[in-house]
């Protein structure tokens, strides 16, 4: 029924050639061929449908895995970024503390230098004051001696 005449003729020719038996177009054996073709067609349709469903399920699973992978990758990247930020902030705070300590040390050194320079200058000024006082006393005594002699 569903078998085309050309296909039936080729089947008759193949049987004749292979088995040396001649059959007609109305032979009941050809009913089995038609039945076989119908079953093969149904089986192929069923397998095609199952394959299509299987493909859809695989596509869904791949999509779910893809989404899950993206989520995990985003979590990993987010965690790494957070850790990097914390490390950067920690290092930056450490470097700021070191810098502040260095500045304080430099300021303290400069303050001590200024204080010691002032002490040195004070000593120089004190010595100059002593010399000036001695010179003034000598001048006064000289004027006093001159006043006493020239009076």
From TrEMBL:
Coiled coil: 44-71
KW Transmembrane (keyword) present: yes
Chain ranges passing through the membrane: 131-150
Record keywords, A-Z: Coiled coil, Membrane, Transmembrane, Transmembrane helix
Protein name, entry field: Conjugal transfer protein TraM
Source species of the chain: Shewanella vaxholmensis
């Amino acid at each position: 029924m569903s078998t085309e005449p050309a296909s039936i003729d080729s089947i008759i020719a193949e049987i004749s050639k292979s088995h040396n038996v001649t059959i007609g177009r109305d032979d009941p054996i050809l009913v089995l061929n038609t039945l076989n073709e119908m079953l093969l067609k149904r089986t192929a349709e069923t397998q095609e449908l199952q394959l299509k469903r299987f493909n859809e399920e695989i596509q869904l699973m791949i999509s779910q895995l893809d989404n899950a992978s993206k989520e995990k990758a985003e979590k990993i990247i987010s965690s790494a970024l957070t850790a990097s930020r914390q490390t950067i902030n920690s290092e930056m705070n450490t470097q700021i503390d070191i810098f502040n300590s260095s500045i304080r040390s430099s300021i303290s050194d400069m303050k001590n230098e200024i204080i010691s320079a002032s002490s040195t200058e004070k000593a120089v000024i004190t010595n100059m004051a002593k010399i000036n006082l001695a010179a003034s006393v000598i001048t006064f005594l000289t004027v006093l001696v001159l006043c006493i002699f020239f009076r």
